[in-house]
Design goal:
heterodimer; A: mainly alpha; 75% helix; globular; B: alpha+beta; D-Maltodextrin-Binding Protein, domain 2; 5-stranded mixed sheet; 3-stranded antiparallel sheet; 41% helix; signal (chain B); Putative thiamine transport system substrate-binding protein (chain B)
Chain lengths: 546, 400
């Protein structure tokens, strides 16, 4: 992991310090940074990036934890889980477009109110692109809650939360309080890295920030992209400097988050010491369920809106539904999406397969030789998720060019592995390690070889987390835009590259079609991950989740 | 000092024109060499109608033994970045891009950095069907094309309004400001440096400046403050009257059409005379929408295709560029049903059969006639656009 990221970063460091031979710049200096500091929007852009990233992560984590605390093991929880998990497969940009249409002053909510309020035209309110980035935070939260929930669900069974909770409740603790005090402290270390990945992602996200975020000034990552795309090639140097600043900002925010963890842990310990039972925490349960349902509803309604748009004839304000429905958009786009859809699969499947093989081999080696990866090794693994893509991918592209492998599917698959691998490791390592090794002891006592234990006991028992990890991996691969574009040299068109190119035209109907196609591609593995264990273990109650 | 000289020498060597090889004047040889080549055409892919037209061009190319692959970009800068990356990696032959749909600013940048192949464009057989006197084809944003890019369509800035809501639209920038004072929050422009947003700034500058001639020279050679003072005065007055009081801006032209459909604004504009007609045909706008232009004319320019210096299939790319200039393709492109981009051909140089193709094109009620459109105003030197974008961002792009 270090190799590609370091090589890529080197390709950013040089221009950031003013070296770009292709432009005839060979004198190193601090000029690009001075340029960057001279941009008047810089303090605000940095504050926006850090603020929206931290707020979105804190809210998403808080909501996930409260939902689990209040409802884990109940029927409502299973319903929420079914509703939220598939939402992970909705591409970020699609979810953002959908949400935008819900909350905009001319959106669905306003249209529902319009007849009552007597609005003939939408109110001139700054809801989307608000200066504080509130709608951007909302867009990130609704997308990150499903991810964190899934990661939590993968880690939970090994903690046996039912037993802890039963003990806590028999001592008179309230449901949520008991869960927060007994299960959460053991859970958090297991989902710490996914939370960091969410934080790093939220801070450097470009597409969602373009759709929902403010633009005067935008977040730092959006501004860096603008400089990269500026016809004035000299701005590439400033863009490289901005990308490094983005990296520093991400590292600083992670440090801040780390401090926050210590503070929360301290508060939690003193709360436990007070012994207050918090028996009447029913209201908290209600609120968490409501918010969870709202967040799911936002994505589902947004998708529904996109589906309606993809079929819409003319649809003006304040009509709740289009004047006419037409298949025109689907007829136009549908045929053109078949080739990129197969290309998407041809990249996602090998990338996920390679990553899964590596992760399983790594975890199994850990088990057999009693190794534990050092903290440093883990950071290396997550490097690609924490270093902003814009900071190291251009350099990686030059590396591929020098190696002469750019523009091939193999190069794209290799690049996808870099991003899929950490996510797979993320979602698989904890359930894998938490697996009760007494099963292995029993199997060995019955004469099974180490490989036999792996193939016949461990893997089948871990079927669900493995499938979940594969689904996450597929969703990640389907969603990759920059790596596909830069290493594919535009010659490897996937659903996402086509969707982004078409979305640059901004027509909602086209966005509706491409977003639904993208969602379908990522949704399939999730559906399988939910269905298969239920089918295979229909006669093994203990192996079913929950 | 030494390093400055070194850098200057290096820049000078880089700026030397690439010798055209193969020789485009020997068209027969070009056609033969193009047989079996695959041309990767990097072109913006944000429009259905454009993508469909490019697919049709691909079918024409296939008849001549050339495979055309449309690489859909969300921004032309992606292609420029790629050529730069290839140059950095020392890939001076066998590059990944054979043809780019390019506009003035990117052309000026690539030409300056010596990233283009040529000259070749003047030698295309179909180039003879264009008017050599037509300044729009020999200079792109005032930068001489020097045969490094070949034209394929002309576009012009056109405003549109919903005649049901606004029967008499304002027909000049000052009239627009008066109208906005009576109707605050009902006008928007995409945020510069979006191409269309910057075009609005340039159009306003041309209409308001006391010294229009200064715009054809690089900005460094003009009294920038004096030339642009009326523009900023106008923008200071207009900004608080914009949609969302100028605290947020639409991202691009498509968003502008959407705002019009959502009844959030009453006047929009697009760099395509057929935009309103296309949007009505696609069900994006109600059929009461009509186009209008400002008195004294609006900005216009030509779209070009260029070949990167390290292109792999130069001959194939030239064959495609020549197809783009064929009367059949040009007439198809000019048809509002297909796309509606203006042709670059000179009608007097076509034979009767070809001229009939253009005469058969019918424009709908939402499209202005050539007489109503008027002659396009020339684009300022690209350095103006850069400077205006920077200045706008400093004044209005950072919220208070």
């Amino acid at each position: 992991m270090l190799g590609p990221v370091a090589a890529g970063l080197a390709g950013t460091l040089l221009p950031a310090f003013g070296v770009m031979p292709a432009l005839g710049r060979i004198e190193p200096g601090l000029m690009p940074f001075r340029d960057l500091m001279a941009w008047p929007g810089l303090p605000r852009a940095m504050a926006l990036s850090a603020g929206t990233g931290l707020a979105a992560t804190a809210l998403a984590l808080g909501l996930t934890v409260l939902i689990c605390a209040g409802w884990q093991g109940t029927r409502a929880f299973r319903w929420l889980e079914r509703a939220l998990s598939p939402l992970l497969s909705v591409p970020h940009a699609a979810a953002a477009f959908g949400l935008a249409f819900l909350i905009a002053p001319s959106g669905w909510i306003a249209r529902a109110i319009a007849p009552l309020a007597g609005w003939e035209r939408p109110p001139d309110l700054l809801i989307l692109q608000d200066p504080l980035g509130l709608s951007l935070i909302a867009g990130l939260v609704v997308k990150e809650v499903p991810f964190l929930l899934l990661m939590t669900l993968a880690a939970l069974p090994a903690l046996r939360p039912g037993q802890s909770l039963a003990t806590a409740r028999s001592l008179g603790y309230g449901r949520s309080t008991g869960w927060l005090l007994t299960v959460f402290p053991r859970l958090y270390p297991q989902i710490r890295l996914p939370v960091y990945a969410v934080l790093a992602f939220s801070m450097s996200v470009v597409d969602v920030a373009l759709i929902l975020g403010p633009s005067t000034p935008p977040t730092l990552s959006v501004q860096v992209l603008r400089w990269m795309n500026d016809p004035d090639l000299a701005l590439r140097l400033r863009a490289a400097a901005g990308a490094l600043l983005q990296l520093a900002l991400t590292v600083a925010a992670l440090g801040l988050w780390r401090l926050g963890e210590a503070v929360v842990a301290g508060l939690g310990r003193s709360r436990i010491a007070t012994g207050r039972r918090g028996a009447r925490d029913g209201a908290l349960r209600g609120v968490s369920l409501l918010l969870g349902a709202l967040s799911a509803a936002a994505v589902v309604l947004g998708l529904a809106a996109l589906a309606v748009w993809s079929l819409a004839g003319f649809w003006g304000f304040p009509a709740l539904l289009p004047d006419a429905l037409t298949l025109k958009s689907w007829m136009r786009q549908g045929g053109m999406l078949i080739a990129p859809a197969t290309e998407t699969l041809r990249i996602a499947l090998p990338a996920v397969a390679i990553a899964l093989l590596l992760v399983l081999a790594c975890l199994e080696a850990e088990q057999r030789h009693g190794l534990r990866p050092t903290q440093r090794a883990l950071w290396l693994l997550y490097l690609p998720l924490i270093v902003p893509q814009i900071a190291f991918l251009p350099g990686l592209q030059i590396l591929a060019l020098v190696g002469g492998i750019d523009g091939t599917r193999a190069a794209v698959i290799a690049a996808h592995v870099i991003f899929v691998l950490p996510y797979l490791f993320l979602s698989l390592s904890d359930p894998y390690r938490a697996w009760d090794t007494r099963h292995a002891a029993v199997a060995r006592a019955l004469g099974a070889s180490p490989s036999g234990v792996f193939w016949r006991v461990r893997l089948p028992m871990l079927l669900r987390p493995v499938l979940t990890a594969v689904a996450v991996g597929c969703a990640v691969s389907v969603g990759q835009f920059l790596p596909t574009l830069l290493l594919g040299g535009g010659r490897v068109p996937t659903l996402t590259t086509e969707a982004v190119a078409l979305a640059s035209g901004g027509a909602r109907r086209v966005i509706g079609v491409t977003a639904l196609a993208q969602t379908a591609a990522a949704f399939l593995p999730f559906a399988l991950a939910l269905l298969l264990p239920a089918l295979i273990w229909r006669n093994r109650r203990g192996l079913r989740h929950g | 000092m030494k390093s400055v000289i070194a850098a200057a020498t290096l820049a000078a060597t880089l700026a030397l024109p690439a010798w055209a090889d193969p020789d485009p004047a020997d068209w027969q040889a070009v056609r033969e060499a193009a047989q079996g080549q695959t041309v990767y055409w990097n072109a913006w892919g944000g429009s259905d109608s454009v993508n469909a037209f490019i697919a049709w061009i691909g079918a024409q190319a296939a008849d001549r033994g050339v495979t055309l692959e449309h690489v859909k970009l969300s921004d032309t800068a992606e292609a420029v970045s790629r050529v730069l990356a290839e140059k950095t990696a020392g890939r001076d032959t066998g590059g990944g891009i054979d043809l780019i749909w390019i506009n003035g600013e990117n052309f000026a940048a690539m030409k300056e950095e010596g990233l283009l192949f040529g000259p070749w464009a003047e030698a295309l057989p179909n180039r003879a069907l264009t008017d050599p006197e037509n300044a729009a084809l020999s200079a792109d944003f005032t930068v001489p094309t020097d045969g490094l890019e070949s034209p394929w369509g002309t576009a012009q800035l056109v405003f549109y309004h919903d005649s049901a809501r606004l029967p008499e639209p304002p027909r000049s920038m000052s009239a627009l400001l008066d109208w906005a004072e009576d109707n605050p929050g009902r006008f928007a422009f995409p945020q510069p440096p979006d191409f269309l947003g910057s075009t609005f700034l340039k159009q306003a500058l041309i209409e308001l400046t006391p010294d229009r001639d200064a715009l054809s020279l690089p900005v460094t050679q003009a009294d920038y403050a004096a030339v642009t003072a009326p523009l900023w005065e106008f923008m200071d007055a207009l900004t608080p009257l914009l949609w969302r009081q100028g605290r947020a801006y639409p991202q691009n032209s498509a968003r502008l059409i959407q705002l019009m459909a959502d009844n959030e604004i009453d006047i929009g504009f697009e760099f395509n005379p057929n935009a309103a007609a296309n949007a009505i045909a696609n069900g994006q706008l109600p059929d009461s929408v009509r186009s209008h232009v400002h008195e004294g004319g609006t900005l216009g320019n030509a779209s070009f295709v260029a070949i990167p210096y390290n292109a792999n299939a130069r001959e194939g790319a030239m064959v495609v560029a020549n197809i783009l200039l064929s009367p059949e393709a040009q007439a198809r492109m000019a048809d509002p049903e297909i796309w509606g981009l203006g042709t670059v051909l000179d009608m007097t140089r076509l034979d009767d059969a070809d001229r009939a193709r253009f005469e058969a094109i019918a424009a709908g009620p939402a499209t202005l006639s050539a007489a109503e459109l008027g002659a396009p105003l020339p684009e300022p030197h690209p350095s103006w656009m850069e400077r205006l974008e920077e200045d706008w961002a400093a004044r209005y792009g950072i919220a208070e």
